[in-house]
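Human: Can I borrow your eye for a moment on a structure tokenisation matter? Separate attempts, laid side by side, tell us more than any discussion would. Could you pick a protein and write out its sequence and tokenised fold? No explanation is needed for now; the record alone will do.

Assistant:
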Amino acid sequence: KDLLALRFDLPHMMAMGYKVVRGVDTKNTLGVIESCPRDVMSPVKQMIRSAASSTARLGWNRLYPSIGNFANDPENARIVSAMPQDLRGFLQRDPSPRTDLATYYQTLSASSKWFNEYVVSQMKTKSGEAAYTPDVLKIYDSGVWGHNSPFHWRIHQNEVQSMYNHCLRESQSHCEIAVGTGLFLSNLDQKQCSKLKRIALLDLQPSALEACQSRLALNECYRKNHVQLESHLANILEEPSNQLQGAFNSVAANFLVHCLPPGDDPIFNTFQNCASLLQPSSPRAVFFGTTVLGADLIYDQQHAGPVAVDPIHAYNQAGIFGNQHHSFHIISEALRNSFDDVQIWRIGYCAAWMAKDPKAK
């Protein structure tokens, strides 16, 4: 209720004396508030705090970073509400007194069903990497990061990108496990990868390795810095080769864990093997990543909705995911089993982490 009030009362807030940044879509109340009269600041602060609390409870607080920032720094009145550009279509369909709820769910369900059924149809064998065919990789970014992640799993591409930006800023050598399309590595700029000299790509799917390396080869920063790109066809459930062990300042496993075979052991084995890739003598060496928490989403299915729950069941049945019993507690326990320094938090129905100081085997 508070979040809807914040969005749909923007015209009223403008009438109270707010100044709106140019280009804001005032009809759908998506945009940025630049300034407001001091005499209306107190009730607005209260409303923003309330909205921030509501979005946090829903697991959507990371999708509305400006609301959270405003709540933490109420004297900064520059930004009241700013929505990511690629979520505009979703917000315009968001249930509200002005939107037909049935039409909203019908639209979201139809687009979800098409993409997820197409991915399942590409499976030739029942294993997570089998879904990443050349045809799926062509639409992977738009399907996963433009649709499933923000709408179903409640995590946004920008949040994951910020982890890459932070963790690779001081890294000279990086290992990417389960490479996808190389989206996040390809978005790094000179500031974030100025020290990077080596990137090792590790995956079970040759088509993913080929697509990722080809994409990264076009990155201007990597070309300018003569970054060494290498691909390794390998299984992270098995002990890494001597060539890779202890060789990296940073290791990423983004959206890997939910693709592992079912059970707790694959998670613990994967994290131990990822830990072995980090340079043991480097205090800044970091292992980071995200994963979809299938058990947590299913447990909260009343709020997540069938459009979010159905793909989890379908992906697990097809063998693309093995996360039907993955919970925040299990991921946290597995990380702490392999690392002494673990930061882990929830973003929607996902876990995100940064881990340092690998434990001795």
Observations:
- The longest helix spans residues 101-121.
- The beta strands are 19-20, 33-35, 173-177, 198-203, 228-233, 250-254, 286-292, 339-347, 350-358.
- The two ends are 50 Å apart (CA to CA).
- Confidence is low (pLDDT under 50) at residues 1-101.
